[in-house]
Design brief:
single chain, 209 residues, alpha+beta, Nucleoside Triphosphate Pyrophosphohydrolase, 6 helices, 11 strands, globular
Length: 209
């Protein structure tokens, strides 16, 4: 583990985060902030995800999953491991660690949580999501849950930081197959857009400041 990079991430997560400025760069439409939603009368749900870092032959990478196709608003989308808060979860970090274990087989004991990014509100599913950033303590062994995860793979942080990392893309959303033009990252030939792209954008801004 290169402690210099991990220490940089840890330190930047403790400083002022770029938040909405970074989120706006990847929004396909203007959405309310998580802070505004928490103050409103909107009936939202809470969730958490884990941006998991690890080192491999390509350098530092983060873990992304491709969700299975299903009858829902996030069908077949790229995401971080995560999901809704369960009543037995002590807090949202517990949610992120539990969901990471359930979805990709990485146990919470193998993850050092470095901090958290800014919360994001996801209007289609009415979730307020808190992203955590963690680092694997040992080389990863992924065991994806076939009920939820179609694929799991690592994407180099170097690619995220590339000056031309942000691309224009067209995605199909909803049961009516509506085409939507979005800003996205291309990770392993896959289009990463929406809330996950917003989180990646904040991490990108955070490291580049």
């Amino acid at each position: 583990m290169e402690k210099d990079f991990i220490q940089l991430v840890r330190d930047r997560l403790k400083s002022d985060l770029p938040g909405r400025l970074a989120h706006l760069e990847m929004m396909s439409y203007i959405r309310d902030s998580a802070a505004d939603i928490r103050k409103s009368e909107v009936a939202y749900r809470e969730g958490a995800v884990m941006m998991l870092l690890h080192r491999n032959v390509r350098g530092w990478s983060t873990v992304l999953i491709e969700r299975n196709s299903y009858e829902g608003v996030h069908s077949a989308q790229m995401a971080f491991p995560g999901g809704k808060r369960d009543p037995e979860d002590r807090d949202l970090m517990d949610t992120a660690l539990r969901e990471t274990h359930e979805e990709i087989g990485v146990h919470g004991d193998d993850i050092e949580v470095l901090g958290e990014l800014s919360e994001i509100f996801i209007p289609p599913s009415k979730f307020v999501v808190r992203p955590f950033v963690g680092v694997l303590k040992s080389p990863p062994v992924f065991i994806p849950d076939p009920r939820e995860v179609a694929d799991v793979f690592s994407w180099p942080i170097e690619s995220l930081l590339h000056q031309n990392a942000i691309k224009d893309a067209t995605v199909i959303v909803g049961g009516d197959n509506v085409k939507l033009k979005v800003k996205a990252f291309k990770a392993g030939g896959r289009v990463v857009w929406g809330a996950t792209a917003m989180m990646l954008s904040e991490f990108r801004h955070m490291l580049q400041k």
